[in-house]
Amino acid sequence: MGRYVIRRLLQMIPVFFGTTLLIFLMVNVMGDPIAGLCGDRQCDPATAAQLRSEFGLDKPVWQQYLTYMGNVFTGDFGTAFNGQKVTELMGTAFPITIRLTLVALFFEIVIGISLGVVTGLRRGRPVDTTVLILTLVVISIPTFVTGLLLQLLLGVQWGIIKPSVSSEAPINELIIPGLVVASVSLAYVTRLTRTSIAENARADYVRTAVAKGLPGRRVIIRHLLRNSLIPVVTFIGTDVGALMGGAIVTERIFNIHGVGYQLYQGILRQNSQTVVGFVTVLVLVFLAANLIVDLLYAVLDPRIRYA
Amino acid sequence: MRGATTVKWAACAVAVALAATACGGGSSGGGGGADGIVSSSWGDPQNPLEPANTNEVQGGKVLDMIFRGLKKYDPKTGAASNMLAEKIDSTDNQNFTVTVKDGWTFSNGEKITAKSFVDAWNYGALLKNNQKNAYFFGYIDGYDKVHPDTGTASAATLSGLKLVNDRTFSVKLSQKFSLWPDTLGYPAFAPLPKAFYTDHAAWVSKPIGNGPYTIDKYAKGSSMSLRKWDKYPGDDKAQNGGIDLKVYTDNNTAYTDLTAGNLDLVDDVPASQLKNVKADLGDRYINTPAGIIQTLAFPFYDKAWDTPGGIKVRQGLSMAINREQITDQIFRKTRTPASDWTSPVLGADGGFKKGLCGKECTYDAAEAKKMIQDGGGIPGGQLKISYNADTGSHKEWVDAVCNSINKVMGNNKACVGAPIGTFADFRSQVSQQKLHSPWRAGWQMDYPLIQNFLQPVYYTNASSNDGKWNNKQFDDLVNKANAESDKAKAVSTFQDAEKVMVEQMPVIPLWYQNGSAGYSDRVTNVSLNQFSVPVYEQIKVK
Question: Coiled coil where (chain B) (predicted)?
């Protein structure tokens, strides 16, 4: 197990450098960011030249990348064009997005798995069919449609929520956006759980457990669910990274100033410091989530071992 | 009933979730009347908030609330009148003596003297301070020493600025410029307190000014609370208790918040909502001219465009664009067809002259086609109009302009749009002269003067003359107008310069842009000034 973890951690290093380099190159290819700083007029050449040297943009790209990575390892993610430290931006943006992700995960796990268990145990019954149709509908509607629709109905028409989230973004304001972010994944979790439960419900160990006279709830939770959760956990684990990065659309609709907002702003302004910094952290989150998923396998099913 | 409990649990979770949001849906509005707080939409300023470093509307909005300069532009007429200036005298239109009024202080209690201005201007002009509006000080003598085009500055202060006494300073310009005092209402010329230099980082995180509002709280990137400054000595005191600015990532969300009663003021109605705006807001929708003109610029550095026949081609193209139809259908009358190179906000006295461009800017399909063919046709056989596709609805109108030209030419390929991914990339291609076909251009005025619409954009080698057009006759007329001491005479000479542009058509004027805003029924007396910025201090809360 220990060797496995170390090997996985070592594998992360090339992935980390590869992705950051790619992002760095992509942002650089988009052109000269200083030109966009002065609006519809040309920056005066002397100021532009000075800004360029201040942000290190006058050096070749490989050198910029090396300097940047060197700084990152000392915890310095550079400065955004508005004079704010990127670490400062991260300090405000990540807590909000993490909160949003947790809300979304909560819905995925609680609603998704519950519905999955219910439908898995009642295959072919009306409940099952209804949930299957509902999840199909949710999967086929793009998130921004769900988001705008809920915003319009709950926020404007019925006045249940505020259409936009305030800058502190407390949990209670993030419930609807969280539900929107979670919606598609939630449907997948339901379907995954359903299939897995339905498959395992006929397994020998379940029959044994029932025959032993164990209470129904114990059979379902300790025996059936535990074995059926492996594909679901894989999905949820990879989804953590996707939720954090993919919240861009939802964050924009509900005016949440999280990671998605900073990334969007950074891309619009071609601020490589912001974009690369945020993506670097997202890559780390993604890698960590994947590692945790793999380690969880062993917890759920001791038969899965690592050399 | 094995699954029953789980179903119940899920149902409860949803119910709790909805109940919790309902609790969070309460309004946070403050009191009404003179202490009422107005909430308004905002965008994240692109640059740090410093007077000489702010060149876009979002940062400008704040500066407008927390700073007052020597002059102030009347929000209705645009006329510049003295604010902190007691008088600005000149005998030759080149040497000015400025006297600062007594009794003004910054909100931290520091007295405003002539030095507050001289130091601020020297700071703004100096190259090493990276101020993006440094060129505003370019008319002052010695600017080329403190802000050379390349290399390092050879002087730290402008030689044209001299402190005379506590309340007086003198300014020597490098050329005659009779309207120069009228430029001093621009925020770049604001005075700065000592705290700006001594603890710059602290100042930038919470700027201190001398305007009707002070900054109470500033959370960079998300919100700013401004409160009325009770000891403000000016006569344009705030009529409300304060302004809460909230950053929106998407102006659609801001508009939704307004319709839900969650926000009082939106100063940028999204194009997609223009068709609903009458039904949603009724007469709480404002659509007034702003000092912005949009144009098509041509690359005169490219030989193919700088030909004698090119004039006819450009005039023909101008006549091939059906401005009326496009402003009606695409912009829903939030643009007005342009017929000169200035803006209606200047007013007739200020130099706006409707129809100055005449038939050259009027749609005439038959004549347009003839002109373009007489001039030798479109260089390269195809007109590619470059624009940035990331912001604004540029694609829609560029396509419409091309459609109009294609119809005139009877050729579906005569004109196409050439999108460029980001604004920064678009600007860098324009400024590096990489474009060899026309591009969308625009000019937002810095101050309501006809000079500002012409000289920075079309004068030979001017800072925003991206197409590198040059014409001696035009330059001479601009110089002559600047030296004119009589304002009316100066304006009419600038108009003579504009007439040269009709004959040459260096850029095609398309339309004047309006400012559009909407407000809630909680507030009254909302208006936009000529820069399409709300006149915040006049807003009254019911």
Answer: none
CB contact under 8 A, B134 and A47: yes
* CB distance A7 to A13 below 8 Å: no
Set of chain B residues whose Cβ sits within 8 Å of the Cβ of A265: 44, 249
Confidence at residue A132, expressed as pLDDT on a 0 to 100 scale: 92
Mean pLDDT of chain B: 88
Q: CA-CA distance, B142 to B341, in Å (whole number)?
A: 31
* ipTM of this complex: 0.82
Name, in order, each residue with C-beta under 8 angstroms of B55's C-beta and a sequence gap of 6 or more: A38, A39, A41, B47, B132, B133
**Of A14, A40, A74, which residue constitutes the final position of a domain?**
A74
Looking at residue A218, which CATH number applies to its domain? 1.10.3720.10
For B495-520, how does the pLDDT look when each residue is reduced to its tens digit (9 = 90+)? 999 999 999 999 999 999 998 899 99
Question: Cα separations (Å) of A161 from A136, A165, B20, B26, B261?
Answer: 27, 9, 10, 8, 12
Q: Tell me which residue in B25, B56, B249 faces A162 most closely, judged by beta carbons.
A: B25
Instruction: Domain ranges for chain B, please list them.
Output: 44-205, 213-288+515-541, 290-514
Q: Which architecture does CATH list for B290-514? A: Roll (3.10)
Q: Give the structural domain span for A156.
A: 93-270
| CB-CB contact of B378 with B414 (8 Å) | yes
The pLDDT tens digits for B4-45 are 444 444 444 444 444 444 333 333 445 677 789 999 999 888
Which pLDDT belongs to residue B5? 43
Taking CB atoms and an 8 Å limit, are B13 and A217 in contact across chains? Answer: no
CA distance B511 to chain A (A): 16
Return the structure tokens found at B166. 């506590």
CB contact under 8 A, A161 and B441: no
Residues B50 and B67: beta-carbon distance below 8 Å:
no
Yes or no, beta carbons of A167 and B20 under 8 Å apart: no
Portion 36-95 of A in contact with B at CB < 8 A = 36-47, 49-51, 54, 81-84, 88-89, 92
Q: What percent of chain B has pLDDT over 90?
A: 60
Residues of B in contact with A95 (CB under 8 A): none
Query: Does the pLDDT at position B2 exceed 60?
Result: no
Q: How confident is the model at residue B48 (pLDDT cuts 50, 70, 90)?
A: confident
